[in-house]
Specification:
The chain has one domain. It contains six helices and six strands. It comes from Streptomyces durmitorensis.
């Protein structure tokens, strides 16, 4: 699936120290991450804690940002969800934590905004995993001798 190639390529080219350190979400991060959606004329709505971006016309894809999760420092919920599918069925979703780099989110947003991803997902193995959670991992503390 092309969206996975874009995600993995973006992660590979992003500074790993920057990913490990993470950064909290700001208005600038949201604007940078969603710039491709605005450029593609996607509309957005604010509904309580959620900001939704919806593709134009019959492009079955969207993005959701959870502001509450983004400001909860230890939440296990995803702050960002990119999704696509048919008219009535979700076929794939990518979930990202609060600490996902804006550059990675922007690369995924650009791919989702450019063309329908659902046409390419039909080639996917139905047993493939459709949910990727990109979240920082905790580093193990070094073992201390006695």
């Amino acid at each position: 699936m092309e969206i996975m190639r874009v995600l993995l390529g973006s992660l590979a080219s992003t500074d790993s120290a920057g990913i490990a350190a993470g950064s909290m979400v700001s208005e600038e991060t949201i604007a940078e991450a969603t710039r491709p959606l605005a450029d593609a004329r996607w509309g957005h709505t604010v509904d309580g804690r959620w900001i939704h971006w919806q593709a134009v016309e019959d492009h079955p894809a969207g993005v959701q940002f959870d502001a509450f999760t983004a400001h909860s420092h230890h939440s296990a919920l995803p702050a960002w969800t990119f999704w696509g599918g048919g008219a009535c069925t979700l076929r794939w979703a990518l979930h990202f934590s609060t600490y996902a780099p804006a550059s990675v989110l922007q690369d995924v947003a650009l791919e989702v905004a450019q063309e329908p991803v659902t046409a390419r997902t039909r080639r996917m193995n139905t047993l493939s995993r459709t949910d990727i959670r990109a979240q920082p991992t905790r580093r193990a503390s070094p073992a201390r001798g006695r």
